[in-house]
Amino acid sequence: FVGIPLYFVDLQDDLDDFGFEDYGPDCDSMRITAFLDIPGQDNLTPLARLEKYAFSDNVFNRQIIARGLLDVFRDFSNNEEDFLTVMEIVVRLSEDAEPTVRTELMEQIPPIAIFLQESRPKFPTAFFEYLMPIVVRYLTDVNNQVRKAGQEALLILLEQDLVAQSDIENKVCPILLDLSAPDSDDEYKVEAVNIICKMASMLSRTTVEHMLLPRFCELCSDGKLFQVRKICAANFGDICNAVGQEATERLLIPKFFELCSDSVWGMRKACAECFMAVSYTTSPEVRRSKLSPLFISLISDTCRWVRQAAFQSLGPFISTFANPSSAGLYIREDGTLSIRPPAQDVNSNPCQPSNNITVMPSTEVHTKLSEDLNKNSLEQSSDCCASPGEDASALCQGDKAAAGGSGGTKESSVPGLGSALPPAQDVFNTFLYWRPPLPDISHDLELLQFKADKHNDGCSGPCNNCVASNEIKKVLESLQEHIDDPDVQGETVTVKLCFLSAGFLAFTKHLTDIIPQPLLDQYLSMTDPARAQTVDTEIAKHCAYSLPGVALTLGRQNWHCLKDTYETLASDVQWKVRRTLAFSIHELAVILGDQLTAADLVPIFNGFLKDLDEVRIGVLKHLYDFLKLLHADKRREYLYQLQEFVVTDNSRNWRFRYELAEQLILILELYNPNDVYDYLRHIALTLCSDKVSEVRWISFKLVGDVKFYANSANALGLNFINELVVRFRHCSKWVGRQAFAFICQAVVEEECMPVDQFVEHLLPSLLSLASDPVPNVRVLLAKALRQTLLEKAYFKSVGNPHLEAAEETILALQSDRDQDVSFFATIKLKQDNMDNITIEKQ
């Protein structure tokens, strides 16, 4: 607690009259109730003096007692009789006529309850008998400030789990139900519904469902006060989460529909803002069949503010349809998204078809169809078989001779394929007479139809039409050698059109099975410039913010649906939009996988590297996370570009370089020793010479780690040691020599190199700093020797030839003329104390 100096400003005269004259304004550490301990001022015991001031006619005295109740309990809690007396005084003080006294007292109830729980074994009895009734009573106090203090205290007690279940059900809930009754005062009703919504997440599901949910449903339809309905709408998601799926779908969803169609636009806006929380609690069927059309009505609302809130919630709402496991991902316990281990990866399914498909030139009609279906070839799906769109795009690449799509469709079949082929021509034709006979494919088509029907009857899951798809391609391959024949070309076109038609239908059905098409269409329209004029100027930023969630929902097999939108956002004129993408590109890379990342994200990533510093910092903060997802050869290309991060638009932006040093510490493990020595070493040494000390000190640790990776190659390690000695030990500036002592300490602490190599190559140069003319250098040397080197087992061994030299140096430093040097050389400080002693970094 703060002392009473605040009151000395205006009320010094009152303090002098009541025993405070011995304490001046500079006494910041005094207890608020320290005057109770002053002996001989009125021949009263501290307890009697407490009672005297608690019921004084002076309001200020009573305020001081109320504010200092925690100190009072600490003083009198050891004696049971005194403790009960204090409790009775508190109860009487809670009935004070002055609202400020009651407010001060209520603000002390939570810390008092926490103190009593920790210090008294009989806490429940004392709290429930004396203090809890005060909290309940203040919920109906006539003064607004007292009620608010009581509500805040109740929430804190519930959050700390200090209120018994019986008190919640028998005391708290009945009061709130009375205050929120239809005939209750408007002000009390608004406060009651607010506290009901806030405490719902802290109570058991049974209590909320049986006692509070019926009243909440009534309040959602309150026709008298729109403030009540607005509070219900704003907290609707919390209530749904508190009662669970069954009660939400049975009781709350109908009320949610009413609020979403409320005549007051503020209600509809509040519903749009909490839509994701409501959707998260419902089943997929309700989410798709009921909530999706409802959301479309909000996103098309006549009020701009409702549409704005709906578009901001569109991406989060779509993300509730997500199933990470279908994309080969899983969510860790800490909430981060990660790639599923290979042993669990569904891509390892042997049902996965081959990617090598030879196709023939196709005509203009189905080339146009494929372009409409998918402008970019789809990557391999993580399901058992790839998506049908992949076959379509692979088979329709215009004049290309080969394509990399994967075979197999998920749900399509090719009924009536034989009837789609043109009948044989029986009329004599010279061309038909002289050409080589055509292969008979009727048997193949019958076999295809039979296998397709059989597969549809007996197979379920994502591999529904692998056989049908593969058989169609076999038919096409059998016709390839006769491609110059115009009739064969006609048959080929027909077969392909049948295949594309079936694949397109299956693809459309597969995509709409994930999310409703209207939701995706609305999301893709968020990059339309017209939206910024009619809805929200920052709508593109909201689209960029939620794009990883939408991509996770659709899965990597449907990335083509978002690719154009992502590229549009990446080239947006607003740097805030590009910055948002830069901060999340590493997460999107996890979702898409290495192939799509290399093809579609790497070019955008490269563009962000050359963007403004506000955008580059997003890439830089997660540089390691992105690079580790790339193949080694692709990752190695960025060795040349890491140097560019050292240069910033504003040289004063030192935090940018600090972040670079932190990322490089992680990135070192991604490259081999030669690359670390050739490229990253230069960056680390450059950062060590930075003008800002914070950047230099984190860079010294980076240099130590570089030494560890370079040490695996002996020649590189020795070269780097020599460079450190020349650059830092013999530096003309004392900062460089101080850095050498710190680097040596970091090398030993982190065990970046064997101790025997350290004492051979670095220790002599380190000990020579004992004669340095600058005390700050000698201080670092003393710390490095006393705290690190001499603590290693190598130096503690008897007969160590290097121990004597180190001890001689320590003895010399202990008698140093500078007090700080002798202090650190003499006293072996604990690490905790060392953290509190800072040396000025210049």
TrEMBL record:
PROSITE patterns registered for this protein in UniProt: HEAT_REPEAT
UniProt HEAT repeat ranges: 212-251, 762-785
Residue span(s) of domain Putative WW-binding: 427-466
InterPro entries on file: ARM-like, ARM-type_fold, HEAT_type_2, PP2A_Regulatory_Subunit_A, WRNPLPNID
UniProt region (Disordered), positions on chain: 399-418
Signal peptide residue numbers: none
A GO term, aspect molecular function: protein phosphatase regulator activity
Keyword terms: Repeat
GO CC terms: cytoplasm
Pfam families: WRNPLPNID (PF15017)
Alphabetized PANTHER family for the sequence: SERINE/THREONINE-PROTEIN PHOSPHATASE PP2A 65 KDA REGULATORY SUBUNIT (PTHR10648), WW-BINDING DOMAIN-CONTAINING PROTEIN-RELATED (PTHR10648:SF7)
Protein's name according to its UniProt entry: Putative WW-binding domain-containing protein
Organism: Junco hyemalis
